Amino acid sequence: MGVIDLTDVVVVGGGIAGLSVAWRAAAAGHRVVVADPSPGSGATHAAAGMLAPVSEVTYTEEPLLRLGLASLELWPSFAAELSEESGLDVDHRADGTLDVAFGADDLAALDELADFMRKLSLPVERLTGRECRRAEPMLAPSVRGGLLAAGDAWVDPRRVTAALLAALPRRGAAVVRERVTGLSVERGAARGVRLADGRVLAAERVVLAAGAWSGSLEGFPPEVAPPVRPVKGQIMRLRGAPGFLGRCVRGVVHGSSAYLVPRGDGEIVLGATQEEMGFDTRVTAGGLWELLRDARELVPGVTELEVSGLSAGLRPGTPDNLPVLGATAMEGLLLASGHHRGGVLLAPLTAGLLAAELDGTLAGDPSAYGRAAAVCSPLRFHQAPAAHGSGNGTTAHHR
Ligand SMILES: Cc1cc2nc3c(=O)[nH]c(=O)nc-3n(C[C@H](O)[C@H](O)[C@H](O)COP(=O)(O)OP(=O)(O)OC[C@H]3O[C@@H](n4cnc5c(N)ncnc54)[C@H](O)[C@@H]3O)c2cc1C
């Protein structure tokens, strides 16, 4: 069994979380290796890419809102730096979200939400039905009003992944296309990972960023594995003409939230279902019917567009809907997971927080990273670990 040279950090999982962490850590001077058999193929591949903390606010999730707003602020420089370094555009657009309502009940709910948002000092503007249609001529004539969150933005997550994969080697970071099958533990501390091909990637620190798989990864101690579960989302891509929509449009249709996201190249993304189906990534007829039915209510013209893609992804959900970021109770093991519906939005915050933790500058940090670390600590779910691998060598823990 070969041992690959000792590196500083090995990141398990090359979705947007792991790749962003790797990029920022490498930029800070750490030697980084990412291990993933298929980087960018998880939830990130399916995601719509909305950076929409304001229009996605809920009455009970103010801590999540604060994280989202902090990360939204980081996105313009994150996108600009990444594009510059990779030479690839990530389609970052900050043209806002229009949340629309149809019936009297919907309107009342929208007004209540607008009051709540104003109390939180969130910048939103209430529009009449006519103003909504003036802003977005493709909207259904039955739209009675809307709420414009002008600061909301979006990116194309597939482009972000491609840009991160292009930027990493320029920072000296490597990507190993192998599945991780276990944690290498020495004297109770994480000191690398085992790969499916039998090699060991030795490292000073391990960042577990395997999305929905983080909670049940083979060979990781259950005491420090995050309580992450897969939440399935199906999504559809349509080919429209550029300018079909000018901003993200969303609304509650048939009791569930539906949205349309326009990309710079004319693609329109319709999302998304939310299903508790375990590790099932089948695209189903029922899921697609639901997406089209709801999107047609918002923007009837979508039925004229060509279908260009169907996918399903697994969001990494946690019991409190907040991510798990930073040091665990096991020395050397850090988490960057549990981002549920907001992993794209939260990527710059996640990357900066983990880079600060790896640099040893996070404790007492008064910035957004320090505040986020307090809210997202993995320790909130776990007590002190039992001793693991008390001798030297590699230990496997199956769960
Ligand atoms: C339909 C849908 C729409 C969404 N829309 C949005 C949105 O608009 N805005 C937003 O912010 N978020 C959105 N999300 C959520 C977002 O996609 C996730 O929060 C985010 O992609 C999670 O990123 P990740 O890197 O943690 O996980 P993933 O992207 O799932 O990456 C995990 C990686 O781990 C790898 N892996 C798994 N097991 C192993 C192993 N044993 N060894 C090595 N590697 C392993 C996988 O191959 C994968 O590449 C959406 C999600 C879905 C499903």
UniProtKB/TrEMBL annotation:
It comes from Sphaerisporangium album. Pathway: Cofactor biosynthesis; thiamine diphosphate biosynthesis. Its EC number is 1.4.3.19. Transmembrane segments: none annotated. Residues 8-356 form the FAD dependent oxidoreductase domain. Keywords: Oxidoreductase, Thiamine biosynthesis. InterPro entries: FAD-dep_OxRdtase, FAD/NAD-bd_sf, Gly_oxidase_ThiO. One of its GO terms (cellular component) is cytoplasm. It catalyses: glycine + O2 + H2O = glyoxylate + H2O2 + NH4(+). SUPFAM superfamilies: FAD-linked reductases, C-terminal domain, FAD/NAD(P)-binding domain. Coiled coil: none annotated. The keyword Oxidoreductase applies. The keyword Oxidoreductase applies. It holds the Pfam family DAO. GO terms for molecular function: flavin adenine dinucleotide binding; glycine oxidase activity. GO terms for biological process: thiamine biosynthetic process; thiamine diphosphate biosynthetic process. This is glycine oxidase.
